[in-house]
Amino acid sequence: xxxQQLNVAAPILKALQSQGYxxxxxxxxxxxxxxxxxxxxxxxxxxxxxxxxxFAIPILQVLAERKAAGARGGIKALILxxxxxxxxxxxxxxxxxxxxxxxxxxxxxxxxxQYHQVNKLRRGIDILIATPGRLLDLISQRHVSLQDVxxxxxxxxxxxxxMGFINDVKKVIAKLPEEKQTLFxxxxxxPDVQRLSxxxxxxxxxxxxxxxxxxxxxxxxxxxFVEKQNKVxxxxxVLEDKAIENVLIFTQTxxxxxxxxxxxxxSNIQAQAIHGNKSQNARQLALENFKKKQIRVLxxxxxxxxxxxxxKLGHVVNYDIPNIPETYVHRIGRTGRAGEDGKAIxxxxxxxKMFLRDVQKLTGQTIAxxxxxxxxxxxxxxxxxxxxxxxHSALRSGGSRKGRTFRxx
Length: 409
Ligand code: AMP
Description:
The chain is built from 15 helices and 15 strands. About 35% of the residues lie in helices and about 15% in strands. It is α/β, with parallel strands linked by helices. It has two domains: about 5-210, Rossmann fold, CATH 3.40.50; about 220-405, P-loop containing nucleotide triphosphate hydrolases (Rossmann fold), CATH 3.40.50.300. Helix 14 links the parallel strand 12 and strand 13 (about 340-350). It has helices at about 10-20, 25-35, 50-70, 85-95, 115-120, 130-140, 155-160, 165-175, 190-200, 230-240, 255-265, 280-290, 300-305, 325-330, 355-365, and strands at about 40-45, 75-80, 105-110, 125-130, 150-155, 180-185, 205-210, 220-225, 245-250, 270-275, 295-300, 315-320, 340-350, 370, 390. Adenosine monophosphate binds near residues 47 and 50.
């Protein structure tokens, strides 16, 4: 299956080619023809599956055709997404895939002055990518009207609800025309997300690709049991491995991210932090520096890192085990993208063992324990059953491979 067979138009094919995309991903194979047909979609897919292109390609194609046929102005497509980072990333995707198409788009999000965003809106926009708060704000100031929207994408619906945006999302929906195409994307489908989808969608085509727990299979995962106060020392020990070229480290709190970042810098490891208290510019700059490999470590909280896409990210470290198991899957899904190898290392203190158990239950996988390291727990008092173990050296470059089994030590 290739993109031509999905009836993707020539200017987009050319852009995809320059992106190096040879074959559509499963979500693209399923969603593009349905979306081109004008149908609603209910898609269960997480980031990393190629879902952005799955909605961006048909939107660009249909709007370009309508514009060529003389359609009048106004915002024709709205993509609602939970975070500023995602909004920026989605807009970049529209720029990439739409580089040979004459359509305008912009992203609006909070945390920055509205001036530049308003200026762009004034010039006329075909495709708007927005976070809910700033969108409602600009609607109330009459800088945005949604009355011409023909296609509405709700991206990361479950995250949107987790982040407490349900009322904002409903307010946005109320401002959209009754008749429209809706493309609904969510990594998981808990009951409140299902209710929202029922409210919004009209005879949708259901698409499900790789359920949330199964995408982690291709990622090498390991856990170190460690006393909480020894986590920094253990991290420095792990980072001695030069094979770890770039690593995204997750902490549970903003304060924890800043503190860890300072400790790393004190130990001569180039690091920057991104979290909700940092300005939008500081976050973008840190992300750019990390993508360009100017810093080795990016420390992030979950919300700041939601959906961010870093090419060839080799390692993810869960400095803290998240208390929501799906978050673990989202975190480690930053690595091992587009068929690349990825490694996820987790540090588990005594009080986090139950979170680890929840993670293993969700993924149905047993995470190998690295038993040989300089900072073992003094009293492991296993609250979870013993796991297969492997020496620390197995994690070093070339030591750990997909499908390898680790013998009990
Ligand atoms: P997404 O799930 O939209 O966040 O996309 C994840 C990553 O896959 C991004 O880096 C995309 O550039 C990349 N990607 C999307 N579609 C394809 C494709 N058909 N072939 C190769 N890479 C792709």
